[in-house]
Amino acid sequence: MKAKIHVTLKQGILDPQGKAIEHALDSLGFKNAANVRVGKYMEVDVNETDKAKADAQVKSMCEKLLANTIIEEYRYELSA
Amino acid sequence: MKIGVVVFPGSNCDHDCQHVFRDVLGQSVEMIWHKETFLAGLDAIVVPGGFSYGDYLRTGAIARFSPVMGAVKEFAKKGGLVIGICNGFQILLEAGLLPGAMLRNRSLHFICKDVYVRVENAATPFTSACKPGQVLKIPIAHAEGNYYTDPVTLAGLQANAQVVFRYCTADGEVTPEANPNGSLDNIAGIRNAEGNVLGMMPHPERCAEDMLGNEDGRIIFLSMIDSLKKATSPLSGVGS
Description:
The structure holds two protein chains of two kinds.
Chain A: E1 2-9, H1 16-27, E2 39-45, H2 51-66, E3 72-79
Chain B: E1 2-7, H1 14-24, E2 28-33, E3 38-39, E4 44-47, H2 67-77, E5 81-85, H3 87-94, E6 101-103, E7 111-119, E8 135-142, E9 146-148, H4 151-159, E10 163-168, E11 187-191, E12 197-200, H5 218-230, E13 238-239
Parallel strand pairs in B: 1-2, 1-4, 4-5, 5-12
Antiparallel strand pairs in B: 3-13, 6-9, 7-8, 7-10, 10-11, 11-12
C-alpha cells in the first residue's frame, strides 16, 4: 500500500516560514490569503496488503520518526 | 579523566571539542564513531555540533537512532555527564534525554554571532565554576534554535531550576531584544531533572582559549572537569 503523509506544525505554534510566505502573498496582492502553514509531504510504499496492518505501521512511523509530536501533527491516507 | 566525543556523519564541531578538552585542558579524549554500541571508561560524553545526517527530516531526528545513542542514553541513565552543544542539544531533545523541541529561528535566518547568556543555575556540574548570574559571551551558529515546549513542561523547567542559560544583554538583562531566535523564556540551555545532562545552543568550544580572543566558554569545560574530579571513578561499560 502507498501512504501519503502530511506533517505540519501544530496549530498555535508559530510557523515562521508560513508567516514569510503569507507576507509575500500579501505583497503580491493576495490580500485575502491568511494562515499559511508550511509542512512536509512524504510518500511511503508499505509492503503490506492488509489495510489495518499498514495503517498501524504508518502510524508508528509517524510517531517514532516522521513527526515530532511535541511540535508537529500528522495525517495520512492509505491507498492500494 | 577521559572524555568521549561522539562523531556522527556531518558533525563538524567534534574536533573543536576534542581540541579544547585535550590540548587546552590536558584531558584524554576518545572520539566515538556513531556506529559504536559499547562505551567504557568514559567520565563524560560530548554530543557535538554540526549537521548530523544533513539535518534531514528535522535536526537531530535521524542521529537519535544512531547505534551509539543507545549507549549514550544508558550512560546518562547511570548518571554520567552528557553535554549536547547546538546540534548535540537538538539530538538530545529528539532522543528524549531533554524535554522540548527546536523550531526554526523566528527570523528564518541562520544566525552566526556572539551572544550573551546569563548563568541561571550555577549549581550544575557544567556551571559549578560560574558565579550565579554570571554573563558569558559565547557564539551561536544555528537555524533551528528556537526552543519550544508545552506550558506545563516549561513551568516544570523553571520551577526545578532546569533553565541553565538564558539569552541576555551584555549587562545580564533578559530582554526580548536579547533573544536571537525566539526561544521560549529566552532559553539558551537546559538540564534534565537529574542534573547530569545539559543541552545548550551556544558554542563554548569556539571561545575557550585566549588566542581566539574570547575564553568565556572555557568555564563550562572547567566546571565539568572540576565536578568529575569530585565524583568517583568513571562509569563501567555501557551498551552492548
